[in-house]
Amino acid sequence: MKTPRAALCAAVSAATLSLALPARAQAIVTERNISAKAAFTIAQAAIEACKKNNFDISVVVVDRNGLIRLAVRADSASPHNFDLARRKAYTARTFRRTSASWAKRMTDEPELSGQKSLSEVIPLGGGVPINFGDDTIGAVGVSGSPGQDKDEACAAAGVAAIAEQLK
Question: How many domains does the chain have?
Answer without folding.
Answer: 1
